[in-house]
Design goal:
Number of strands: 11
Strand content: over 45%
Radius of gyration: 13 Å
Oligomer: single chain
Distance between the termini: 40 Å
Largest sheet: 7 strands, mixed
Order of helices and strands: EEEEEEEEEEE
Helix content: under 10%
Structural class: mainly beta
């Protein structure tokens, strides 16, 4: 069993930056693919970024490429999402996901965090 706890969300002005963190419990964290998804009010959950267990492979949604960076520190059982040049359209609850086969689809992950709110004001 893996527990995920996100942090780092908040209110930021357009053009600003935030770094989200996702701390994971479990001894096999380093073997899990990890991902970030987000869900805006009235919208379905959408893929943001993903990384393989080794960070050797990453993938991003087109809407965040060049602005967001996913990384992980397996010594700290933590995955990060650095978000730069934030836009009001980035406003959503951001969820960390782990395990399974990973990838860009939510059903590819076995474990989910509770989410952290990111609000970008114009």
């Amino acid at each position: 069993q893996v527990q995920l706890v996100e942090s780092g969300g908040g209110l930021v002005q357009a053009g600003g930056s935030l770094r989200l963190s996702c701390a994971a419990s479990g001894r096999t964290f380093s073997s899990y693919p990890m991902g970030w998804f987000r869900q805006a009010p009235g919208m379905s959950r959408e893929f943001v970024a993903a990384t393989s267990w080794s960070s050797g492979s990453t993938d991003y949604a087109d809407s965040v490429k060049g602005r967001f960076t996913i990384s992980r520190d397996n010594t700290k059982n933590t995955v990060y999402l650095q978000m730069n040049s934030l836009k009001p359209d980035d406003t959503a609850v951001y969820y960390c996901a782990a395990g399974g086969v990973g990838g860009t689809k939510a059903h590819g992950y076995d474990y989910w965090g509770q989410g952290t709110q990111v609000t970008v004001s114009s």
